[in-house]
Amino acid sequence: MNSQPISSVHSARLFYVIGPSGSGKDSVMSLIREQWSQHIVIAHRYITRDASAGSENHVALSVQEFEQRQNKNFFALDWQANGHCYGIGCEVDAWLAKGVDVMVNGSRAYLEQARDHYGDALIPVVIEVASDILKQRLAARGRESREEIELRLIRAEKLKQQNIEGAIMLDNSGLLSDTILPFNDYYQTHLE
Question: What's in the GO CC field (predicted)?
């Protein structure tokens, strides 16, 4: 990961979306894209996962391709989780430098590294969901075993207990249109 902070270069914001698997991050980001398309760019992630896996529109790379890009510093942020490598392309830094707000699907485990890189420009967006609903969603998608689902639920509860400074909190337990209301309120208030 590039360690040079860029927050002093621009006034654009990086909305760093985090939440448990199954919380609906992709759905939330898609609706924000629709409502704020003239102001916010949603960045694709580069992932060592098949393009047809999951619902996220991502750029699929082999491990070798990922490592080549990583070695050439093509990623602004990168991490490993759930047996895959994830990267946010350095194009995000170029967009921010041009004053464009950007939203990325981040990783809660790498929030501090992302904050080190982006400083005050990074705004965490935390998506929560009621445990019973999350359990239903994880079971319905059929990607994890019962034990893996239980581990995900435990991690989700730990995230709920964290106080993430400056975060926009979104509860995605109900209607998607209601979920993004706090984001819309924040963004409308801070729109230059």
Answer: cytosol
pLDDT digit string (tens) for 125-158? 999 999 899 888 888 887 778 888 888 888 888 7
- Other CB atoms within a 10 A radius of the CB of residue 181 amount to 12
Residue 82 domain-assigned (yes or no): yes
Q: Is 26 annotated as a binding residue?
A: yes
Number of domains in the chain: 1
Flag whether 161 is in a domain. Answer: yes
Q: Please tell me whether 20 is known to bind a ligand.
A: yes
pLDDT tens for each residue of 34-91:
999 999 999 999 888 765 655 566 778 899 999 999 999 999 999 988 788 999 999 9
Contact 97, 6 (CB under 8 A): yes
Does some domain include residue 6? no
Q: What CATH code is carried by the domain that includes residue 130?
A: 3.40.50.300
Q: Is 19 annotated as a binding residue?
A: yes
Chain centroid offset of residue 65 CA: 22
131 is in an annotated binding site: no
Is 23 annotated to bind a ligand? Reply is yes
Q: What's the pTM value of the predicted model, to 2 decimals?
A: 0.86
106 is in an annotated binding site: no
Task: Say if 4 falls within a structural domain.
Answer: no
